[in-house]
Please model this.
Amino acid sequence: MDSAVPHWLIEAADQLSQGHIGIVPTDTILGFSSQVTPEHAAQLNRLKHRASHHPLVVLVSGWAMAREVAQLPNERTLAWPGPVTYVCHTTPDYQAILGDTVAIRYPMGWWIRGLIDRVKAPLFSTSVNATGQPPITDEAAIPMAIRQAVAFCIPHIHTYRTAASTIIDLTTPHPVIRRHA
Model:
């Protein structure tokens, strides 16, 4: 085991690699996280009490992984890493899982990027709350029913912000802000 990597991060990566869903603080808010598969998308949407086809954010740990998932425009124009999610056209390798477009984000938190790197794959992420309810930003506020529905919850990491990311749609002729946080 790598002594430079926190024990909780290794355990969370192992859980995700085994196909489990967990609660992971991102650089914005607390999020449900899982592997990027159609089955996991359906499970996450059930946890949030919303339609099974609702799109989810895909988190990546760097530019190379982002290019595997999304057809990115000029990278110098993107505000990454950070709390900005871009809607882009999906690469052919991910279209069967994600459809024609993907909401993708390269977070700035070392722990979330480290987790993605240990899993060696992008991760789904969606806010820890039922649809229509405010996002949960404090671990102590996670309801017991939600805690019991997931395999793990990464403790003691505080998000940089308490608002969801800004979403910018890059699939249109000109970028469109879909959500400003």
Notes: The longest helix spans residues 7-17. The beta strands are 22-25, 30-35, 57-59, 70-71, 84-90, 101-105, 123-127, 152-153, 166-169, 176-179.
